[in-house]
């Protein structure tokens, strides 16, 4: 952390920025946009589909406004120095997601096959729960370093969450992926929460072990190889992610956890060898599993030749899905500027059109311009997260922030890349945009933690006790 | 720890950059090919998003559209679908389109470039985009007479009527037929209806357009072509000149005697008498006397061996080019390999009626925008001249005798000159199957103009063999079609 003092950004990361602006008013101004834009989008959908401003416009606007307002007030009260961009960005994505979900609710086709119809009101409820959790994090987590105490409990908790879908009677197998559990009529994806809990464990563990991992190593062919005993944890995590892949056939989550671990390990040890090692191990694991797990194999085939997959599905061959090709057509049909809200046909994707594949709806109706804007919003969230990691003063906070941001970026990449046919499809949801309670709630918690870390980082230190010996001590303070 | 943090920041930025590049590839570079991919359902959705234009007969649309519940907004409907199916064809949300619906799809669905200006204007003025219309040459009364005649008869068959002076198709009926409305949608009931119409499930093959796409041995009706060949080649020059025909007549190169149907006066009969009684010997001998080449040449002038585009494509009628004299003799009385579509035989009658000039048959008079601005008008076009005017008039007088005092009496119409020719074509091994009953005719008004030429064919498995003859089964249908056309002219 000493290196930050001479970095050009030191004025926000060094102690002593007494009276640094809290930026809360910036946040408020941005929030207005983040609420107004989705409200206009909502009116737009109604006009396009039913030729009238939707009846629920006012209540939707007020609802989203209230949620954002309460969130903002909570930030003012409990994390006044937190990053000003995160809340508006998340609100904007969440609001646009609600509009897209409502738009797909209007599709008769999706209503017929029970893939949509009443999703938007539920998503609004989940959003409220998510923002409630966000506020709860700000209120009860006074300092993120408290989480350090729960390092090993987090590990157990994360494993527990990950194994839940495998419990007979509780887990659900939906189209080949066993990543859901069913509780009281609600489907929950424990993996979304495990992502955060696991980041806490990794941060706590690596903070303690980083020196051992970084320094005790042998040099071999230009690479620093870790000692066997230090290799243990990474092997365990690798094994766990492979097991997830095998038993839950969830390529996305497996990739996400392993990627998050490698990122955090690299940041903790500053050793490039870990990255090389991590990439090698994930490649070996993925290829190995793909070669004997038919579900994964099929995903890869569908990625390589979506048209063949579409044809097989159309011919009624079991186990094939036309989704991938339908998503590509949706993107292509959107073109540069899109068809406009409500005027596309992304409902043709059918299953999961409003969750895993929701980006295709944006692609078709808002076009290349809209999707690029959304991807850049994600990029901004990630970069604000990494910025928070840079600003954080403690290694635990740095590791946690970069872990969460990295996981967020990986998730966006894996989902968007899958839907756009860049990589094989995996069953994960676009953060904030997609329909799904677990995803929205967990991601609001993630934003809450990042804001807590950034609040701690940017909060002015208490005024130093007056030192009678000192004249005017030289304090470099940027204007 | 900050150096790796910065690298992670760059790494995350690269992830997003990769996504941005991929998105540009998809939505910019590949956008058009994905968008216009025929398997992309949006292509069909767009096609059915506008009310389809109409196919019009005599000022009234025989088609329409209705809104459907699926993602295809509009569906085609047909009025008297079964009667008009040989003209319209079908357009189906599930099975594509054929015939006029397919050929003029651009106009009807509103995607034709010629409608661009109209569409743009409609878009600016806020009107819903609509497809253009196809105005046909058909005559509703004649079509009804033809279809009802075939239907009442009950057997499979077809009837075609042409206006000889222009080539306008006035009637085009096929039986059994199907109602294209039943397969216009994409629902389960449409699927079932479609399956039932397929030949493998339905031996009647109702979707076969018998008027244009089926070739039948024309039997004795082909003798009109043979007579025309005899006159045109100067073999005989008058209707009432005796022909050099022994009875019995043995076909050249064989020991087989060509038979006539019954005890009819065919020995050295004149062309008129030979046509009146349908003498196989006379026309068989004309064929072998002229030879394969000259017969083929004349048949070709009437349109044989060529597909016609009305604009709906027809099958090509057959007259072989590699026959010995006896085969040519059989072919010249419409047996052996000779085969013709009902449209082809109507063309033969129409060429004779039009004083020897064969007009190109067509059924689309005009295509227009939905508010009736003409886009393209079809002009009558001469296809060939199989007969000189004098010879045509000689042949006319012979055909008129057939109706007045020969095998075609049932086609007589009071106050109108009718010329015709019956036919009974044998088919099957050793003629085991029921023959086809043919009749071709034309009507001629007092002013010398001919408003209509007709050909009717009936294949009847249920009728008693002896009952079948062109004069008995097919002539009444031809008569009612001609009457319908004449009445609608008044």
Output the keywords:
heterodimer; A: mainly alpha; three-stranded antiparallel beta sheet; B: alpha+beta; Beta-lactamase; five-stranded mixed beta sheet; 18 helices; elongated
Task: Summarize the entry for a quick read.
The complex is a heterodimer of chains A (479) and B (490). Chain A is mainly α and 479 residues long.
In round numbers, the mean pLDDT of chain B is 88
Straight-line N-to-C gap of chain A = 23 Å
N→C terminal distance of chain B: 101 Å
Q: Please report the total strand number of chain A as a whole number.
A: 5
What strand order characterises the main sheet of chain A?
Answer: 1-2-3
Helix/strand/pairing category of chain B: alpha+beta
Spell out the helices and strands of chain A N to C.
Answer: HHHHHHHEEEHEEHHHHHHHHH
Which protein chains make the most extensive interface, counting residues with beta carbons within 8 Å of the other chain's beta carbons? A-B, 55 and 38 residues
Share of residues in strands of chain A:
under 5%
The CATH architecture term of one domain in chain B is 3-Layer(aba) Sandwich
- What does the main sheet of chain B amount to? 5 strands, mixed
Shape, per Cα inertia axes of chain B: elongated
Number of strands of chain B: 18
Give unreliable regions of chain A as ranges: 1-17
Structural class per helix/strand content of chain A? mainly alpha
The CATH class of one domain in chain B is Alpha Beta
Structurally, the number of domains of chain A stands at 1
The Cα radius of gyration of chain A reads 23 Å
Widest β-sheet, arrangement of strands of chain B: 2-1-7-13-14
